[in-house]
Amino acid sequence: MPLIVSAGDDRLVKLWRMSETKAWEVDTCRGHFQNASGCLFHPHQDLILSVGEDKTVRVWDLNKRTAVQTFKRENDRFWVIAAHPEINLFAAGHDNGVMVFKLERERPASAVYQNNLFYINKEKHVKSFDFQKSIESPTLLSLKKLGSPWSPPRTISYNPAERSVLVTSTTDSGSYELISLPKDSSGAIEPTESKRGSGNSAIFVARNRFAVLSVASQTIDIKDLANNVTRSFKPPVGTTDIYFGGTGNLLII
Fold first, then answer.
1. Neighbour tally for 121: CB within 10 Å
2. What is the pLDDT of residues 118-157, one digit of tens each?
3. Domains and CATH numbers, the chain
4. DSSP 189-248
5. Which end of the chain is less congested by CB atoms within 10 angstroms, N or C?
């Protein structure tokens, strides 16, 4: 039977089943703390999006009925939300206009080393592509357990000396994971061991060192492969990202 989703002044987002003669409530998503003014089903994923007078856009897991993401404006109440039927675009109307946004990046996390492109596909599998031979590798690693199911990895950095990768995610206000790639490509292998930490950007700067940026504290930590901090420094005020700038160097944005 079809599902209906509704938002109301009781601050609830409700799911209903509908027959030819009646509709009945089957579950409730709780989280808005003022009137919920609009909602819809995601066109292609098992998600619900809702907006409210609490100045938030909230994303819910349709199967678990739990909140997976929240976006907030400081001064504007939201009144209506719409989804593009074909592409990854949404529009939400608020007190001062309309906000058009995407829920996730469409560009996969990737890194180039010599003639190889390392990337993470939509299934959260690490693969490589040989430019000279035009050959795609089998899955090198599965990152299904990394971050949120609804939040794809943001960046990947490759260390050829150690054959390891640094993967960042926006989950938990920014996190990274240091993982060794298997020697043989034999399918969707789960990492046997990894090292984790918090940070918005993480990048290798030498064979045994990587840098981690925390935007909130405006700090860059240089760490060894055991995930221990070897030194820290403050970047220029307003730094939002870091990139590899040659061995031992960082490009600071």
1. 14
2. 999 988 999 999 999 999 999 898 898 887 777 889 999 9
3. 3-101 (2.120.10.30), 110-252 (2.130.10.10)
4. PPPS-EEEEE-SEEEEEETTEEEEEETTTTEEEEEETTS-EEEEE--STT---EEE-STT
5. N
